[in-house]
Amino acid sequence: MDEELDPDDENPNSVLDQEYSELVAILRCQSDSVIMQLIQTVPGSAVWLNRQTSGGSAAPPDHIEAMLQHFRRANSAECSNFLQRVCLLCDGIPMHLESKLMSVAGHEPLTCSDDLNDLSTGTSCLENEDAASRVTDQQPLTPPAEEQLTKRPRIDYWEQYKAEAAGSLQRRWKRLSEGLLTDVQPDKIWVSIRTANRVRDRPDQTPSSAERGGRTPEPDGDDGWPESRLTLESFLQGCTGKVTVLAGPPGSGKTLLMSFIGQQWTEGLGPIPSSHLFVLLEFRQLDLLSAPLSLSELLFHHYLPTNGDNEAKQAVVDYLLSNPEQSCWVLDGYDEFQKKLKRHKVQNERLDSEKPVPVAELISGLLSRRLFAGSTVLVTSRVRDVVDLDGLSDKVGQLLPWDQREIKECVNNFFSAKDGNLAADATEILFSSRHLLAMSSLPALCNICCVFLQHLLHRHAEKIKMLGEKGVEVKKKRLETEKKDAQTADGMCDNDRRSQKAQHGENSEETLMDGAKSRTTFSFTSAQIPATQTQIYLAAVATFLSRHPERPRGTEAAETSGCSERTKFAWKTVNLPAAELCELSRLAWRGLEESRILFLEEDVPLQNLASSIKSGLFSPVEVRGRDGAVVNAYCFLHLTVQEFLAALRIMTSSAVSDADLKKRFSLKTRWTTKSDQKTVFTDSLYLYVCGLASSDCTPALEVVAKAAGLKGALNWVQKRQALVLKLLKALCCSATLTGPKILQLCHCVQESQNQQLAQLVVSVRPTLELRNFWLLPSDIEALAFVVNSVGTKGVGLDFGACSMELECLDTLSRCQYIHYLSFRSRKYGDKFAEKLSSVLPRFTALRKLEFCGASLSSAGAASLASGLQNCSSVTELNFSDNNLQDEGIRRIVDVLAKLQNLTSVKLGRNNTSLEAAECLVKHVSSCSNIQQLHADGIKELTLTFSQKSESNSCKIKPEATVRLLNQKWTQSGMQNLARSLTRCPSLSELDLSGGEWDEETLKTLIQFVPSFSITERIILNDSCSSVQSVKILTALLSDCPSVTEMNIRLQDPVQVSVAFSGGREKTANVSSKTLCLSRCNLHPIDLEGVWRSLGASADLSDLDLSCNKLGDKGLKKLMDFLPRLNKIQRVDFSGNDVGVDGAVMLADGLCSNNRLTHVFISDGGKDQVMLQFSSDTSNGKLQTKSFRINRRSLTASDVNKVCRKLVQCRSSLELEFTQCSFAEKSVGNLLRVLPKMSTLQRLNVSNSILSTFDALTLISCFPENHRVSSVELSPQGESFIHFAEVKAEQVHCRLTDFSFKEENFVLLDRLNQILQQNRQLFYLDLSGNQLEDEGVRRLLESLPNISVSSFINLSKNGLSQQGALHVAATLCTCANVSAVEVSLGEDERCLIWFTQKGGGEKTLSVKDSNLDCDNLLRLANIVSDCLSLTKVELKNNMLQPEWIENFVSALDVNLRGCTISVEESWIGGDDAAFLLRRCLQLHKPVRTIRMGDATLQLVLTDNMESDVEFSAQSAIKNISVSSSSVEGAELLCSLLPPLPNLTSLSVGVKHSFVPEELLHVILSSTSIQSLTLCGVIISDAAAQTLTRLLPRLRSFTLSHCVWSAAGRLLLIETLRESNALEELCLDAAMQLNEDCSRGLAQTLRNMKSLQILKLDEIVKSSGHPEADVVLDLLAGMEELKRIQEIHLGGWRLGDGGIQKLTGILPGWKDLRAISLSKNLVSDPSGEKLLEALSGCRDLEELHLSSNHIGDLTAARMALVLPSMSRLSVLDISENRVGNEGLFSLSRAIMSLKNLRKIHLTSVGNSELSAVAASLSHCPLLQDVGLGWNNCGDAVALELANVLPVLHDLTRIDLECNSVSAAGVEALVRALRCCPALQVIRLWKNKVSLRESERFSQMERRLNFSST
């Protein structure tokens, strides 16, 4: 460089003059301290310069120029010294300039001493010493001496290395630019930019959709890519010193651009200054470096080896470290880097450049500024990998794909250089194929498409030419044949004709040739191009292989047919290069498995390597090995080519297993996260696999598979294709795919060309939601393929923040069956809307369009409106959350009338004013099908339309609803609105809530309301809140006849509504009106204004004045105004603080106002005050009135005042003081006034009478007031006194849960006096009064003087055993006592039952009382004293055997027929046997002994005279032993022999053999006439013994016994001889075979005296319903004329059997019971059966459960059962009876006065209320079964009503019904008067566990369990 200097350049002044401008620019970039040091070199003669610069720390530009001007004129030595200092102190001096300056300045550096001298000199010249000291403190004025000595050689090495780098980059560019068709122009390359994200990490999941129409912050669309764009040249400006990322897909030219930027740098152009070192590193090279290395090794071994020594290398490194800002690092292809960059917690920690570290550590340090801080870094990557660089980059941009202009330019350049005449045809083909066009948007793939098109057009032209030549030859031959035929034909020799034909032939030939030539032009259609991207790749790869120069001519791979009759791309697989494809696919698959894109020479076979390079499929890549030497490597033309060939390997090679395929087959998302697994590939493998699974690719795959050596290639390929489709189908069925994956799925389905899969995609997800990623036209094309597969079903597309070019909308219009289209993003503005409007009419199936949350203005609205007017099928529009403003709303509204199918339009959040709302109201009046207008401030604005079919079906137009909420109305605005509303034909509702109007605005509205046509209501919530507004609104009731109801509430929230009668035409029908002024802050004075506003509103029926401040004065004004309200029905005056005076006022009004019927006052008038009026008093009949006071403290004076007013009441009156607190003497005053209240019907004092004294005070009304019919008092429950003229047996008294302990005995005595003075009581309930033993004793002493007809209940009074004995003694002391029940267990029951007749049978029951021995003996004495006692029951009293023996011993022998029953858990074992023996030894007159598992029962004889001696053995006639062991049978063996008069014996030993000894004993006892064996096993020997016994028996029962077949047959044969039998029971004792059944039928014919026959279940397994065995047995019963009871359950009797039976029944005149359960009796047969039973007048039991009877049978029961006056048991469970049948049955039940048991379980109907009500006519009823019918509370309530009259009822079954807590509550209340009722089963009802526990504690007779 120095050699080129002119001689004048050796003069430093001349050099300074030449480089003046460049030095000015360099010095302006230096720091202030450097400039100050240079200024100090100015000699003292230039003091003026120092004086000017000393004023501040910064040197102005003119000072720099003045300094340079000074040295231009200075001597050479000073100028040289200055230039040397400039070189040493300044940074950023270009190498050429620095070398020039140092050359003229000399090489001798300044010495330290000189430097110091200069500094001292310079400093002394400064006038401002402080400024100089500041500069000195900040930085040394000169570099260290060592730095001065080393800077020169460092600069030389640095410049030398830069020169070498420039040469390398130039060579690289020359190599890469050889095939370029056009120059690289950065000013024409477009980049979209975004702000670098340093923290973002997007998860791979579909974001939840925001609320529809909600204006929410714009999401990060397209994974962070915005819409703004600029050129690459502009994008790279200012990148110096920053980290810049340039992203783009593979093949977008990133590597080429980086090389071009390097080339520009070598020429001093571009964004990188030439003074920088340009380091271009490729990640594909870095990825090969596995060993740690230092910075020096990276530069000089693997980037650019240098010939310099270590000193030179170190100098370059040192310069880099000291001047990092002078370096530019280009890191190309981060996506090809296998490793991920690590983040460091300590960001400021510097990286040691000399320490060997992994290459990833070096790159990370470079990006994170831990190495070369301030350097320029430029990184290229794929878009998906940019997320790894978040937090490291300063600026990020993405290369935009080529648009159609750039694609066309590229195609033209390609063909103009080779086949210019084909450029237009190629362009037309490319633009007709969406796949070719999409591929061509990337430069690398565009080149592949051009190569493919070139080959395609060449082959097409050749075929056309061949076709033309062949056509000419064929034509010539045909013409010659015609000529010969013409010569030989008759009459065809005319020369003219021959010449004409010859001439015609010539012309035809010429025409044919011309046609052939013309057909060489382009004649392709889009259908003749490969249909999918995969097929294009297959054709393109084959095309590249066919370009091999050494390949024989004609071995083309993929060709089109070229014939006009062919319309589809066709494969000529004969010429497919299968071997090459097979080998390349193997290599590609290997690279895919190893994640390699670079292949070394040894990886590729030589023959394939050469051909692939020559064909262009392989590209050579220069990389350096570990030693830095250049290594030849190769890669495929494009990553997608490698992935396609790998997919080809998958589909054609058995080396790839199904598992490998499944592992690789997964959809990839476009959302990226830092946790994603890094890969160098494009994730297109699965896409190509799906494409190869198409049947169109099967022939090609077969050829390649054969080349791979597969046997049965076609079958194997088809199986592999089927597997791919199966995997794809599974993805189609998945409902969890995110938006990007759904789109990728559409691409896969499109590649497969499978319509069924496309339909499956949209069947699983009818709406495809796509969110936050970039969409290309190819993506829309894939969506179109899927959408168009659904046909007329339609599909929805929801685009949320997805960026797309406008041309995407053209592609979108190909989707024929879109019914829902949504765009949501601020990205979509007016231009987008304008383009959308042009394609909207093409969506013929579109029903719903959403363009919300966007940037639409009125201009965009106008565009959309113009497009929508041609979309007649649209039903829903959503333009909310835009910026339409009023003008935009008008634009949209104007087009609505043309859309006849609209159902809704949403226009909210569009920055509108009231004008928009008024515009819509006007539209409501003009548009006939608007159903609703809804506006809420500026947030919501919606129009709803009625369906066309709805409006056509109605003669009257549907009424619209207008809701304009939260609008700021003014008086003028309201006037305009009201005028518009008057023009509306009919409105159903007008809602103007919100806005806080003033009173004038309200008046304006009210003036227009009578002109409105409103059918339902006006709502004005939160609009008016003053009392004056109440008066204004109230006037509507009189001014507007159609107003029917008005509700006003002024407290928060303010609510105002006005209801209408239904339009003007219905005004005449208005009969009542309602006015509610609740919580309006009204005072008494305000009522006057309200009354004036009401005017003549005589139709007011409901008035609500609750929760105001009216008080007693306001009540007085109301009572005065009431006479004017002729139709008033209800007045609510609650919450107005009504006092006692007000209550008296209301009592007076109740008496004086005939229409006032009910007054209710609660909580002293603070809570509720309700007045109710009767609707009609014209008939003159006085109605029952009620006056109720609840929760109030009442003094004696209060009671007097109220009651004195009520005495005047002439109507029937009910008085209620519930939950009140009576002061002293209040109850007494009440009692004194009660006789004066002659019309009083009921006094309710529930929860008010808390003291025993007050209770007795009220009880005393019994003897004094004969109108009292019942008294029920309880401090914790309901308390009533009823007044009525009733019969004596209906009067009762219930006084419960008070306290009569010892200190209250005085009160108890008073109670006794009251009860003795009282008249006849039906029952007396004194339970729970803490009477204890003494209190009960006192009461029992008075018992003979107390008149009670039914029972006295003394339960829960704390009785002991002694008290229980007192109660039991009443059996002896009181003749009217008929029964005593005592239980001291948890139930604490104590009941004394009475009879009116006196004497008669008496019973005693003592349970759970734990009687000790002494009290048991006392009880025996009581029993002995009561000679009329018939039954004694001792249950669970913990009695010992000896005690029982003593008890029996103590009994008087004079007891006649008394049954002693003892139940204890130990009875049934050895102790029981011992006890039985002892009882027989006591010489008591025991007639019957029954012993079960826990029961011992002794029945005393009733016909033995007391003075006749007898033996116990001779008295015993009946013995029954039932035990679970054989001990009972063994006991009988010892007891029977000495019992001479034993006539009946019953033995039940479950599952045990009957002892032979017992049978022999029975056989020897000749007096036995009745034998019962139950549940025993009878051996053949025992059967033989029984046959000897049978002839003398009158009763024989075998129930559930086990027999052998021989034993059964023997028994049947023996029965023929048993003519004396009167009772025969074989229930389930045997299974009759054919022989036994015939024998039994014959036997029955002989049993003339049989009265009871039980044969249940004996023909269970006999087969069909009408089996012969059944008919035979029925025939055998024809002679049983004396039969009284018959059981034929489980016989499967059908119509035939019933018909046979009905023929027999008339002969059974004495029939008492019949059981036909578990048969097949149909409804018609049941009717006939009942008809046949009508003659059985003495029938007592009828069992028909588990049959098929229904309404017919029930209707017949209604006719037949009334004649059966003795019927006591009726069971028709498990049948299907309808409502009519149950009604008929209820009428029948009313006549059954002797009915004791009725079961209607599971009759298939829950409507059993009528049946339950009819039970009141059955006074003897004991058991009711209504379970499993799903009955509700109605049935429970009916049962509760009838319970008081069913005195003998013991059991109710309501299992598995729908009784709720309310129904159970009613049953609990009714149980108080039903002491005999033992259990109500309530399992499986609608009662919660908590409630069931509560009810069980209240009443233990309620059973909620399953047992």
Describe the protein's architecture and organization.
- The N terminus is likely disordered.
- α16 links the parallel β5 and β6.
- The longest helix has 46 residues.
- With 1907 residues, this protein is of the alpha/beta class.
- Helices cover 41% and strands 16% of the residues.
- The strands form 4 sheets. It has a 48-stranded mixed β-sheet. It has a 7-stranded mixed β-sheet with strand order 2-1-7-3-6-5-4.
The profile of the biggest β sheet is: 48 strands, mixed
- Number of DSSP helices? 70
Overall helicity: 40-55%
Number of beta-strand segments: 60
| Termini gap | 116 Å
Low-confidence stretches: 1-7, 50-59, 107-152, 198-226, 488-523, 552-567, 950-955, 1064-1069, 1505-1509
**Radius of gyration over C-alpha positions, nearest whole angstrom:** 57 Å
Our estimate of the beta-strand percent is 15-25%
Structure class: alpha/beta
Mean pLDDT level: 82
What is the 3D shape?
Answer: elongated
